[in-house]
Design brief:
The mean pLDDT is 91. The chain has 14 helices and five strands. It has one domain (10-293): Rossmann fold (3-Layer(aba) Sandwich). With 300 residues, it is of the alpha/beta class. It has helices at residues 10-16, 18-27, 47-55, 90-94, 100-110, 129-136, 149-162, 170-181, 184-190, 197-201, 210-221, 231-236, 238-249, 272-293, and strands at residues 37-39, 60-61, 115-119, 141-146, 226-230. It has a five-stranded parallel beta sheet with strand order 2-3-1-4-5, with helices on both faces. 47% of the residues lie in helices and 7% in strands.
Length: 300
């Protein structure tokens, strides 16, 4: 990972706060190329850990500005432009990207080409994100991290409960899902500025029907520009998975220490009966997903 922040402006901008960086980034948007890759999902699949492990690769540079110039411990991960922030415009999106000069400096440091990317796990599920992305960044490479869909569903609910944002027990939340989501997808399509909390945060089972959301990305980007990684493979064989990611992104993989499991909210606590029922309910989706990506998945 190479720091993407332009030299010569650090102390004063840090004192001014993150808003000053966004003003600077927007003003210099024409000097900031679009990202080389996007990690589009899935929520509760391990994308935070995965993205920060990708950032450890020497040829991957950070979004702008680097975290050390902001009052936070981690680099910026997701911009959420193609889902919730699309109305802010292309210049705003580019404001998060390093400048061409920053990329040249980074390439001089590592002696090789560098890449930059962002991770916004709602992209995969948002009904307009794929169309918006392919219109603006058609050459980007798309990374997808997918977890056992039953465990993802439960972990998503568990995370909402842990944040005191979900009043319903798991089974009741699943039963309420259709009514909560009724009409929300169409509202998102009709109004580019509309945000649906229910669509993003209470779509526990619907988000786990991966193939229904990924088909659009495959249609628009093509299979050669998409790499699907199983979360179970990433956590089980991280070095091999990161080697595959490096090959996909066109960078050399450096064997690095595995990072911590971030934002953990595991699947412990789901009853065997519920797990069996959901596994059966999602079996056809997983079979179609395997046909789409051309390989077996570890949970099926």
């Amino acid at each position: 990972m190479v720091d993407s922040t332009d030299r010569g402006l650090k102390a004063s901008l840090k004192r001014a706060g993150s808003g000053a960086f966004r003003v600077l980034g927007t003003a210099t948007a024409s000097r900031r190329p679009m990202p080389d890759f996007m990690l589009i999902g899935t929520k509760r699949g391990g994308t935070t850990s995965f993205y920060y492990d990708i950032l450890k690769e020497p040829q991957v540079i950070t979004l702008f500005p680097s975290a050390k110039y902001l009052p936070k411990s981690n680099e910026t991960k997701g911009v959420h432009f193609f889902d919730s922030n699309f109305g802010k415009g292309e210049r705003w999106y580019r404001s998060f990207m390093p400048t061409r000069a920053s990329r040249r400096r980074a390439e001089k440091i590592v002696g090789k080409p560098v890449v930059v990317g962002e991770a916004s796990p709602y992209y995969m599920f948002h009904p307009l994100a794929a169309e918006r992305a392919t219109a603006m960044v058609p050459d980007a490479k798309i990374l997808v991290l997918l977890r056992d869909p039953v465990m993802r569903t439960y972990s998503h609910w568990k995370e909402r409960r842990r944040s005191s944002a979900e009043p319903l027990e798991f089974e009741a939340a699943l039963a309420a899902e259709d009514s909560r989501l009724a009409g929300e997808k169409q509202k998102l399509r009709d109004d580019p500025t509309y945000y649906s909390y229910a669509h993003e945060q209470q779509s526990y089972l619907t988000q786990s029907r991966y193939v229904r959301h990924l088909r659009k990305w495959y249609e628009l980007y093509g299979a050669d520009r998409i790499l699907v990684v199983a979360s179970e493979d990433y956590y089980g064989e991280p070095d091999e998975v990161m080697r595959q990611v490096g090959e996909f992104l066109g960078i050399d993989h450096a064997t690095l220490p595995k990072g911590e499991h971030m934002n953990a909210a595991g699947g412990e606590g789901i009853s065997p009966e519920t797990r069996e029922r959901l596994t059966s309910e999602l079996a056809d989706d997983t079979a179609e997903l395997e046909a789409l990506i051309g390989r077996k998945l570890p949970w099926h």
